[in-house]
Amino acid sequence: MATPAAVPHTPAVGHSASPSGLWSWLTTVDHKRIGILYGLSALAFFVLGGVEGLILRSQLAVPNNDLVSAPLYNALFTMHGTTMIFLGVMPFSAAFFNYMLPLQIGARDVVFPRLNAFSYWLFLFGALVLNVPFLIQPFTHGIDPSSALAPLTRVIPDGGWFGYAPLTTKEFSPYLSIDFWIAGLQILGIASMAAGFNFIVTILNMRAPGMTFLRMPVFTWMTLVVQFLVVLSFPCITVALILLLMDRLFGTHFYIPSAGGDPLLWQHLFWLFGHPEVYILILPAMGIVSEVLPTFSRKPLFGAPFVIFSGITIGLLGFGVWAHHMFTTGLGAAADAAFSVTTMLIAIPTGVKIFNWIFTVWGGQIRLTTAMLFSLGFVGMFTMGGLSGIMHSSPPVDLQQQDSYFVVAHFHYVLFGGAIFGLFSGIYYWFPKMSGRFLDEGMGKIVFGTVLLGFNLTFFPMHFVGAWGMPRRIYTYDEGMGWEQINLLETIGAFILAFGVLLFIISFFRSMKNGLPAGDNPWDASSLEWITTSPPAVHNFDKTPTVYSDRPVWEKNHGPGPGYSLPEGDEHIHLPPPSIKPLIGAVGVGLFLTSFVMLNLTNLALAVTALGLALIFYSFYTWFLEPGH
Amino acid sequence: MKPTRALLLLPLVMVFLAACGGDHPMSTFEAHSDLTRSISAIYGRIFWWTLLLFIVVQGGLIYTVMRFRATGKETTNPEQVHGNLKLELTWTILPVFILLHIAIPTVSTIFESQAPAGDDAVTINALGKQWWFSFEYPELGVVTANELHVPLGQEVEVRLQSDNVLHSFWVPQLMAKRDMVPGRVNHIKFKAEKLGEFYGQCAEYCGDSHALMKFRVVVDTPEEFAKWVEAQKAPADTVADASKAGFEAFQGAGCVACHAIRGTTAAAVIGPDLTHVGSRTMIASGILENNAANIKKWIMDPGEVKPGTKMVDLNLTSEQADSITAYIQTLK
Fold first, then answer.
1. What is the reported pLDDT for A629?
2. pLDDT at A6 over 60
3. Across the interface, do A166 and B43 touch by the CB < 8 Å criterion?
4. How far apart are CA A163 and CA A168, in angstroms?
5. Quick check: is A551 in a domain?
6. Model pTM?
7. How many CB pairs under 8 A join A and B?
8. Cα–chain center distance at A619
């Protein structure tokens, strides 16, 4: 199969021995360990969100079912969406950003390693704030609704992942459920923004010598685009949430129409974040696919500059289409027409990518590894989501499809058939690099087949049931609407899909221990992460390579150019020391924001905000005084 | 084809089997107004384009993978093609024409469907509540709830409003969705083209019982519609002894705190107007058939029928519920 790259191994440097134990993980600033933490957290929350999805599907398996109550169903679909987007797909992508990006650009770490650790711990805190309510709810359910603690009777977020005002204002949701949601999202927002700036500066400043922009791997490119989307779009939801919080806490009226506020203000701010967010979820997967398809076709990416500029164009256009989520709200004919046209324009760069991917494979020597299967699956499934997207880019058609199961089908083809297929491909592709072992390929093919079958059985029929008028977010439906058989079929599909994911998880942990050993470059791939050991040493590279090509490792092995070269002599290796300050700071920020949203409930909250602030000041002050080396 | 691959076709087969049976009263594929017909025309145009692209992309992908599978016996690498400017420009520019073919009818339909309604249109004020709909015909002096009547072939303009949270007004075969946004008035206009009863449902998440916020639209001939209007305008009967006794039970239980029955002293506007509730096909906002058993169930335990409902549980005795039920059924 592959000829491993010839890497001259110099003896390990003194301080690169990898420490172990819980403390070493709590204080780690190593991008690879932080990547692993992101990955394992994402996997756990992906399973949790999946279980929520299975409960939703079980409730809808038959008409007039009473498996869960209406309020619980509403909380579950809120948390399914929130979890999958913010705690599943985003941190899964972040796992690859963290682990692979410094390796791909030939760097020893990200530019701000402690800030990177701070992002992770903040993410974890935010995820817990969103999910701890599941543990509290059973105990607060019975609180007397007339007592001062009445807001505690509902604590699981239940306003939808989109949190539309005025349903989320105090008048209609006087519960802590919404406050937990606000606090959780604000914390996650800070985590994402900090990581966003970190990666932008890392990509701009830490590239190996000779790695010009057009020599960057496409995954690195898509990461760069995504980080710009993060730092530009998250402020919108941050502002939206602050206004909502002020309405709830201090009696302002930003979203309250009876006092001159406007509920559509929320929608504009939310979707000005929410649409770029879609590309934040899908572009990393597109980057992965753009690495995997060339590797397993043994060809370069077809028209790499077109693919890169398409990704940039998608990112830019993503800021000009937010109101297509609002065609039903009555923005007026001119706005509807304008946002319809900008939305249709996105089909062009997206189509370019799809055709370029197909022509990457064309004429190649295709090896159908599991990673390749998931990437090919991505192209097929994402195309489905793109095509249904063209349908509701037309506002009149959207007025029939909006908030029906047709839209549920559409975005699951984009986010599961797209983003998650891409991420699965990435896991199978990079697992050997991260663990030194192959992820079971035989089982991988069974996983792929089961997931593909279950996925299509669950979501393809939703196009039909949506076109037959079934609205989203309904916890029950009557007999006689013609929706019964299809819903049952979807539920069966969901369980097949879940079985596929279960097989994957078993195989993942088994291969971590017993997988076949993989070399440094088992796939005969082209980017720099494949020249170092699997798994890489703490300091990534003994010597920093100089890059001469956009496929340095391939060209080194197969010509025609030199690909890359390594400098003569030993190199001084500088690694940042571990630090507990990021964790303390994250706990401080988390405590502060979580107790702040509960200020009206009890004075205890005030005390905890003070504690949070104290932790923030302590950790940041000592953090800045810490020696960097 | 290997059996494992044939298995992948299973979902398609099952979907088509499931798709065969039964009718679909909320199907968007059946358009029975000028508005929904114009939408279906655009949908059809996009559908054929997407079907073509679907076949090209999926077919191309599968063919490519089958044709270029590695044999393991290759001695050289495949030709390292980096791109082809002409091809890439082609698939950048060609979609522009497809999109134009879609965008032109889209934009013209947007402007036509959102133009102001004519002066002779029947105007209806629809107000979204948690979780029911209030309907008022301001020019005809009719107030009702959860069941609209409209005349066949005549333009109807619905003005959509809410004084609480967001709702969305949707009758798939007559009216595409429009949201009811507090603080705004949205408009939707259409001409019904088929007699009969059509299903509608709230399409924007609006709290606990969002799933149970339904309504019906009855398309009448113009003559039947005129008759219906006359009947709705009339106040409730207050003369017959049975009516007097029934109203006393209604009043005694406290129902008057929220409901209006024109002709009586009940004039509250918190809940639905019940003046002619007996003439509607459904109760509790389109979720229960209008019969004695259901009315009793609904007024005895509203929270059981509709989680979170604002309708108060008045702790009625069975006898009270029976007399109120009997009275409500007389309100034709």
1. 55
2. no
3. no
4. 6
5. yes
6. 0.94
7. 306
8. 28
**Is the pLDDT at A17 greater than 70, yes or no?**
no
Q: How far is CA A206 from CA A102, A216, B67, in A?
A: 8, 12, 41
Helices and strands of chain A, counted as H and E runs: 20, 2
Calpha distance B273→B270 (Å, rounded): 9
Angle at A421 between CA A417 and CA A426, to 5 degrees: 160
Q: What does DSSP assign to residue B256?
A: G
For every residue of A320-342, which 3-state class applies, written as one string? HCHHHHCHHHCCCHHHHHHHHHH
Does A303 contact B at CB distance below 8 Å?
A: yes
Q: Is B178's Cβ below 8 Å from some Cβ in A?
A: yes
Q: How many CA atoms lie within 13 A of A109 on its CB side?
A: 23
Q: What's the N-to-C CA distance of chain B in angstroms?
A: 65
Strand partners, B321: none
Query: Prior bond to A560 cis, omega within 30?
Result: yes
Determine the 3-state secondary structure of B200 from DSSP.
Answer: strand
- Integer distance in angstroms from the first to the last C-alpha of chain A? 42
**DSSP structure class, residue A85:** I
Contact B65 A366 (CB under 8 A): yes
Of A379, A404, A464, the CB nearest to B15: A464
pLDDT value at residue A400: 96
Query: Hey, is B149 helix, strand or coil?
Result: strand
Do β-strands B122-129 and A564-565 pair in parallel, antiparallel, or remain unpaired? Answer: unpaired
pLDDT tens figures, A331-351: 999 999 999 999 999 999 999
Mean pLDDT of B184-193: 96
Q: Beta-strand (E) ranges in B221-320?
A: 282-283, 288-289
- Whether residue B18 is predicted with pLDDT greater than 60 in this model: the reply is no
Taking the C-alpha atoms of residue A528 and residue A530, their distance in angstroms, rounded to an integer, is: 5
**CA B326 to the chain's CA centroid:** 31
- Cis, bond preceding A19 (omega within 30 deg of 0): no
User: How many CB atoms lie under 10 A from the CB of residue A316?
Assistant: 16
Q: How far apart are CA A364 and CA A203, in angstroms?
A: 31
| CA B153 from centre of chain | 20
Q: Do A384 and B54 touch (CB under 8 A)?
A: yes
For the record, the structure tokens of A530 come out as 């494949």
B155-162 and B186-191: which strand pairing?
A: antiparallel
DSSP element (H, E) containing A546: strand A546-547
> How much is the ipTM here?
0.94
Residue A15's pLDDT is: 44
- Give the residue from A295, A298, A362, A374 with the most B CB atoms within 10 Å of its CB, the best one to mutate: A362
Structural domain containing residue A415: 18-563+575-625
CA dist., res. A87 & res. B114, Å (int): 40
Provide the pLDDT for residue A418. 95
**What is the C-alpha to C-alpha distance for residues A590 and A120, in angstroms, rounded to an integer?**
12
Any idea which residue has 């006393």 for tokens?
A: B248
Evaluate whether residue A7 is within a structural domain. no
Distances (CA, A) of A586 to A97, A245, A465, A592, B74: 20, 21, 44, 10, 54
Q: Is residue A569 one of the residues assigned to a domain?
A: no
Can you read off the two tokens belonging to residue B7?
């298995």
Neighbours of B237 (CB within 10 A): 16
Does A13 map to a domain? Answer: no
Instruction: Please tell me the total number of residues recorded for chain B in this structure.
Output: 332
Q: Please say whether the beta carbons of A130 and A48 come within 8 A.
A: no
Q: Total domain count for chain A?
A: 1
- Residues 236-265 on B with a CB inside 8 Å of A are none
Asked if B183 and A167 come within 8 Å (Cβ–Cβ), the reply is no
Whether the pLDDT of residue A321 is over 90: the answer is: yes
CATH number at residue A229: 1.20.210.10
- Kindly determine whether residue B8 and residue A473, on different chains, have CB atoms separated by under 8 Å: no
Nearest-angstrom CA–CA distance, B162 and B129: 7
Place of tokens 């990673």: A371
